Structures are given as structure tokens and as C-alpha cells.
Amino acid sequence: MALNYNDIEIGNEMPVFTSATITRTHLVRYAGASGDFNPLHYDQTFIKAIGMKNVIAHGMLIMAIVGEAINSWVGNKYLRKFSARFLSMTEPVDWDDIENTKDRATIIVSAKVVKKFEENGEKRFQCDITAQDALGSKKLSGFFTATLP
Questions:
Q1: Please, are residues 19 and 89 in contact by the beta-carbon 8 Å criterion?
Q2: pLDDT score at 133
Q3: How far apart are CA 129 and CA 91, in angstroms?
Q4: 38: phi then psi, degrees, rounded to nearest 5
């Protein structure tokens, strides 16, 4: 069933979106796709040299996961604005200890409608959005504005 503006009410929630567990392979692939080869995202020797424990996911990878969540609900053609603030780092899963580390590398995205309005001849709504890992550590917060028929 297609989403319609008249079906949207303040307080409605976007369906919760859960990402695949982020691995080092995801980080290397994202580095190749984005051109961001900062050693923070793949080089364990560099990480140890600067006093960190583990490599971290690209912030824009987390933002892309949030974008995927929005797109799966309203569709990219209806998105008008997406603003985000990064809150904490995300470490990839450790394969040798996957059962104990997967929750820190799985991103859960949720959003709630906070406003309905008209702008530029379109019926729009705004949602506050949050991404966190399965342990509850918030990774990103922000909002998006979309229009619907």
C-alpha cells in the first residue's frame, strides 16, 4: 500500500529499520565507493598507534544507512531535506567474537512525525530521526522533511 499524506499524523512512527551488521569488509567497500581512505576506518596498526582500540565506521556510512531507512518508508523522490548530527563512533563486528560484538555494529533507525505543513505548494511532514546500535548507544540524530501525494 502506498503511503499517502492524509494517512500521516503527528506522533506516527516510521517502521523501525535494522541494518545488516557492519563488518570491516563493509568499511573497506565503503572506503572504495566514497574515496574516503582515512586509516581510522581500516588500519588497525594506525589505530593502535593513536591509542584507540578499534577501527570505526565512516560517519557517512551511518548516515547512508539512515537514508536507506527513510527511502524504504517514503521513497527518495519524496525526500526534501535530511539533516543529521553524529553522536558517537561505531565499531565493526569482530568475527572471532561475533556473538558478543554484533549488537555494537547493528544500526537501528527510528523516526517520529513531529510536524505537518504546506510549503512551495506541497503537503509536507517532518520527522525527528535517530540511529543507535542494538546496545542503545546513539550514533546519529536529526530530522527529515518529505512530501507525499
A1: no
A2: 95
A3: 21
A4: -60, 130
Backbone angles phi, psi at 125, to 5 degrees: -140, 155
Cβ atoms of 54 and 47 within 8 Å: the answer is yes
CATH of the domain at 107: 3.10.129.10
Tens digits of per-residue pLDDT, 99-147?
A: 777 888 999 999 999 999 999 999 999 999 999 999 999 999 999 999 9
Give the relative orientation of helices 59-74 and 24-34 as an angle to the nearest 10 degrees: 90
- Given a cut of 70, whether residue 77 has pLDDT beyond it is yes
Which range of residues forms the domain containing residue 64?
5-147
Residue range 76-91: mean pLDDT, rounded: 96
Of 141, 7, 20, which Cα lies nearest the Cα of 73? 7
Radius of gyration of the chain (CA): 17
Read off the C-alpha cell for 20. Answer: 545488516
User: What distance in Å separates the CA atoms of residue 76 and residue 142, rounded to the nearest whole number?
Assistant: 17
Q: What is the number of structural domains in the chain?
A: 1
